[in-house]
C-alpha cells in the first residue's frame, strides 16, 4: 500500500519509480485484482481492489478510469485499513440509560430493528409535534455512493409530507424545502 502511495505521488509529480513498480508487479502474482468503484464519496473513482484469501489487502487507482486516471485519494489508498479497523462501527449504537434512550446516556450496541424503530418514532414525533418543516435532509460530496443513491431515491413528498423537493446536485447535496 505504501508503494502505491509513493507511486501515485511520483506519478503526480511526473517522476518514475521503477523499484516501486517492480514491487507491485511481484505482489500481483499472489493478489487477485478486480475493478470496482470506490465507495467513499460520490465522485465514483475507479479502483483496483486486491484480495488474498477472501480479504481486501490492497487498493490502487484504475489506470483505465477516466475520473481518477489511476490515482487514488487518501481514503482510496487506505481502503483495506478502513475496512478492517478495530474502531470501525459494525452495528448501531444508541445513547442509553437504564435500558432506554437518553440524550446524556452512554453509547450502547442495539439491533438494527431497534435502531429503525427509534428512528421511526423520532420522525413521527417530530412530524406530529412540529410539522413537516421540522425535518430536512442535507448531504455532501463526501457521501458514499450508497448514501447518495438512497438520498436521491428517498420519496420526500410522501414520507416527510413536503410539498416540494429541490435537488441541487445528486452528488453534492440534497436540500428539502416546502413552497411558501
Automatic annotation (TrEMBL):
Keywords: 4Fe-4S, Iron, Iron-sulfur, Metal-binding, Molybdenum, Signal. It comes from Escherichia coli. GO terms for cellular component: membrane; nitrate reductase complex. InterPro entries: Mopterin_OxRdtase, Mopterin_OxRdtase_4Fe-4S_dom, MopterinOxRdtase_cofactor_BS, Prok_molybdopt-oxidoreductase. Residues 31-87 form the 4Fe-4S Mo/W bis-MGD-type domain. One of its GO terms (molecular function) is 4 iron, 4 sulfur cluster binding. It comes from the Bacteria. Residues 1-23 form the signal peptide. The lineage of its organism: Bacteria, Pseudomonadati, Pseudomonadota, Gammaproteobacteria, Enterobacterales. Coiled coil: none annotated. This is 4Fe-4S Mo/W bis-MGD-type domain-containing protein. Its cofactor is Mo-bis(molybdopterin guanine dinucleotide).
Amino acid at each position: 500500500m505504501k508503494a502505491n502511495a509513493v507511486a501515485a505521488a511520483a506519478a503526480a509529480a511526473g517522476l518514475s519509480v521503477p523499484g516501486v513498480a517492480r514491487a507491485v508487479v511481484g505482489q500481483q502474482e499472489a493478489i487477485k485484482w478486480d475493478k470496482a468503484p470506490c465507495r467513499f464519496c460520490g465522485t465514483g473513482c475507479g479502483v483496483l481492489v486486491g484480495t488474498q484469501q477472501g480479504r481486501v489487502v490492497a487498493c490502487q487507482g484504475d489506470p483505465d478510469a477516466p475520473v481518477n486516471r489511476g490515482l487514488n485519494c487518501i481514503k482510496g489508498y487506505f481502503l483495506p485499513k478502513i475496512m478492517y479497523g478495530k474502531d470501525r462501527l459494525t452495528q448501531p449504537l444508541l445513547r442509553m440509560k437504564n435500558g432506554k434512550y437518553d440524550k446524556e446516556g452512554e453509547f450502547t450496541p442495539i439491533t438494527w430493528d431497534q435502531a429503525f424503530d427509534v428512528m421511526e418514532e423520532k420522525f413521527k414525533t417530530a412530524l406530529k409535534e412540529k410539522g413537516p418543516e421540522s425535518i430536512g435532509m442535507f448531504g455532501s460530496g463526501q457521501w458514499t455512493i450508497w448514501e447518495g443513491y438512497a438520498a436521491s431515491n428517498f420519496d420526500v413528498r410522501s414520507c416527510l409530507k413536503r410539498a416540494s423537493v429541490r435537488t441541487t446536485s445528486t452528488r453534492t447535496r440534497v436540500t428539502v424545502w416546502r413552497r411558501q
